[in-house]
Amino acid sequence: MNDILENKTFDEIRIGDRASLTRVLDQEGIEALASLTGDFNLIDLDPGQADTSMFRQGGGQTGWVALLFAALADTRLPGLGSVVQRIEVRLHQPIAVGAAITATATVKEKRPTTGVVVLECQAADLKGEVVASGLAEVLAPQQKMRYAAKELPKIQMLHEDRFQELLQACEQLPTLACAVVHPCSPDSLRGAIEAAEQKLIAPILIGPELKIRAIADQGRLDLTPYRLAPTEHSHHSAELAVAMVQSGEAQTLMKGSLHTDELLAAVVKKEGGLRTERRISHCFLLSVPTFSRWIIISDAAINIAPSFEDKRDIIQNAIELAHAINIPSPKVAILSAVETVTNKIPSTLEAGALCKMADRGQITGGILDGPLAFDNAIDEQAARTKGIQSPVAGKADVLIVPNLEAGNMLAKQLTFMADAEAAGIVLGARVPIVLTSRADSARARLASCAVAVLFAEALRQGVALRKVAG
Asked: What's CA 188's distance to the chain center, in Å?
């Protein structure tokens, strides 16, 4: 049941009357304030880049404290019917993002001629240290009111056009010659042509010529600008695509309508394949509208029950993908059902050992922690509630799942329940492999190609180095 709030009229207010309320300004709140006000000061949005100021912990502090004092006057003292006419705020020390702050207002003065009361305001953290102070001049209500405090709707920030960032990052990069393997369905053929129109790839369409041309005619797709390499069947298409990469004709592969196993069998075969010393693995790069950063999930499509050694490669591949999309020091959470190591859950033991490998330089380029449950891997408040102190907890960029089933369900839940869009790519071979699905949107297919372009550029620049097997 909602609390009943009662205001105080000017005549009822006495010098020394006091009221308080406690609020937390988290990262989502910061972004909401920035969206509402248009204030994109780096202190407000990215405290990491504001280290030269005293407010390196960020939080849009001045504006937020003023709003907090105003809310206190509007809802507590004097309460409903008040009009805040003036607020002065002075900050004494940084307000940490996510910290609980208690604002207190004390009546300092009454002005009978105007009906204004002056409130002396303070904001303090949980330790009782004053982080801000100020004065508020408030026109007090003349009419008595009682009302039920309402449950306010939750604001969710929608982060759109993140895939557009990938496409823009590719604008100055060379177009990749791409062997499109067996594009014998409308979706796979159209996806390749749309990527070509965006100048991400120069497709080489590999498959039964008559079938591909019939699909193009049905979909009114012009194949004139593109090379078509005829094959008899899907196995032949996969073998020819791999051979084109070996000869240098193609710099990446893109899955068409053949089964994933068919394509990867040609990729990983010992003689004439594209193996490296690294095990291949799949990464989903997810853009979740209600989440403020990219999330990479691996492996959700290839390695069914990866061994401890496989997971080492899965992690390294995911870290290199993060580097390619400009996350220079990705935070990697190794997921399990719990955040403590226990021999009852083998994935927790592996998580602890993988973190030790990172400590000893056997996994490089990222910051690892685990085991972590999903909630405390991505949500800082959940991690704080459980008392987890970690540079990764609540801030993870990469989620390493225990097995394919867990990863596949997690990625699809985010896609179908949280409107996430996912780009899919296979890493660990000599070239990146674009792995699309019939359920992918046009934007997701383009994003997958953009990720391949960025990763290929990272390979060229030596950001992601690996040895060819055999």
From this structure: 27
